[in-house]
Amino acid sequence: xxxxxxxxxxxxxxxxxxxxxxxxxxxxxxxxxxxxxxxxxxxxxxxxxxxxxxxxxxxxxxxxxxxxxxxxxxxxxxxxxxxxx
Length: 85
Known about the structure:
mainly alpha, globular, 0% strand
């Protein structure tokens, strides 16, 4: 469980690593409008939505967590992960 501590246990370290890679490819692209950057952004958005649907929205104890807040938290975690690695 220590590996999941930074993500609050909702997002595994493997998920966070994959999301951080997509986030980096989308947010730090030299050409933001490049097809690769856009594809990375779409993949990131889809994965965040899937995580939200599967691990947050599906559980009553997290009913107060709105999708935009969850997405913002994931983006913050991705930035932190990229700074550390």
